Amino acid sequence: MTEAATRWERLRDAALQPTDAAALGVFRVVLGLIGVVSVTRIYAYGWTQDLFFRARVQFRYDGFEWLPSPTPALVHAALITVAVCGALVALGLFYRPAIVGYALAFVYIETTDVTNYLNHYYLLTWLCLLGAALPLHRAYSLDARRLRLAPYAPAWCTWALRFMVGTVYFYAGMAKFNTDWLLHAQPLQIWLSSRTETPVIGPLLDRVWVAYLMAWAGFLYDTSIAFFLLARPTRPYAFLAVVGFHVATRALFPIGMFPFIMVGSALVFFSPSWPRRWLGPARELAPPVPTVSPRWFAAGAAAFSLFVGFHTLMPLRCHLYGGDVAWHEQGMRFSWRVMLREKNGAVTYRVRDLASGRTTEVNPRRYLTDRQAREFSSQPDLILQLARVIAADRRAEGERVAVYADTRVSWNGRPGAPLIDPGVDLATVEDGVGRASWILPAPTEPPARFSRVASR
């Protein structure tokens, strides 16, 4: 047998090695409860109108335009599906159909409008999709009792979850390796200076050195925490750091469920048997490594490699565009670039009738809710989408028009600058994966050293 074949067999045995499913069972409970709590918060705070029903225009993701528009019946059905399926996932009852229903309903909710995008929604989507492929119901579940499932899962299941969570942390940290974050402590200076009324620590948040301390601490934490969680000697201390970090960020910033998702997900770095210390019962001796045909294992290894490759390369695509991604936004989403920019903008459209030459101004507020307008005004692809909607409305009235955008965007404390080329007819622009020539270069001046501008 060749050395390569020997290594392949060792990899196969390690990947298929049965491990205690207890930690995966606890992760399943956390994953299900996150869905229940998220939907409960949406209804408790009355967010359905603002997020789904009040808008005249929905900004759609490329490739998802075919999804039906969010009518009240569809949205309520999707939200209830997430809550019910999340509860079933937490209980481990009818787990496979429940996790699939959870994932599909959540994807629909997430894709109804691009302005609803949050990094932790994207993470939750992938955790649900992973959960559909993993046997998370083999411990602490009603299915395990009902079907008498053995409380074991292959080691690769834990590998996949650790990779997913570690990738989020690492890329979030590497995204902070830039001059705004490390050399100017922006946008932290802006955000912290607006929170000086925080009890006890409020007066300190006005100090520039505190912003720098937090900027560097955040960079070092994100880039290293996954490695400390992987190492057994540092794992308990790293988990305490995870809890402390996310408690602090939750207290200072309105970031929703993100801290709870990350703290719960960090539990997958502990020993697969860790819940047995409190929940029991003691596990039996592990069964022998199951026999899997070489062909099936090769197919599984290929699928796992595609998963790893996708999440390794997807966050890097923003570097293909040049410039600063926090300005032009190309490759910003789905790249774990968490809390990196404070942008505020103003947009006015000029619509020119090509037949008469008459030009009129259109205020985006005619189409958008306040929440949509805040998100849209600094994101070029959304400005382009609304320009197309305006052009389509005029065409429906029998006009042929050109649509131009006058923009002014402030970014991380810099003075406002034009974001979109005002001489480009956006009604004729085809957006794609290539570099957008209609987006103007980023301002060259550094951020303001200190600002009391309130965070949006």
Which characteristics define this entry?
456 residues; mainly alpha; 3 domains; 3-stranded antiparallel beta sheet; two-stranded antiparallel sheet; 18 helices; 51% helix; disordered C terminus
Would you spell out the secondary-structure blueprint of this structure?
Blueprint: H1 3-16, E1 18-20, H2 22-44, H3 48-53, H4 72-91, H5 95-110, H6 119-133, H7 142-147, E2 152-154, H8 155-175, H9 179-183, H10 188-193, H11 208-230, H12 235-252, H13 258-265, H14 276-279, H15 294-313, H16 325-328, E3 343-353, E4 359-362, H17 370-376, H18 380-396, E5 401-411
Antiparallel strand pairs: 1-2, 3-4, 3-5
Strand order of the largest sheet: 4-3-5
Number of extended strands = 5
Mean pLDDT: 91
**Roughly what percent helix?**
40-55%
Question: In one word, what is the shape?
Answer: globular
What class do helices, strands and sheet pairing give?
mainly alpha
Determine the N-to-C terminus distance.
63 Å
Quickly count the helices.
18
The Cα radius of gyration reads 25 Å
Beta-strand level of the residues, as a percent range?
5-15%
Largest sheet composition:
3 strands, antiparallel
SSE topology string: HEHHHHHHEHHHHHHHHHEEHHE
Number of domains: 3
Poorly predicted tracts of residues: 451-456
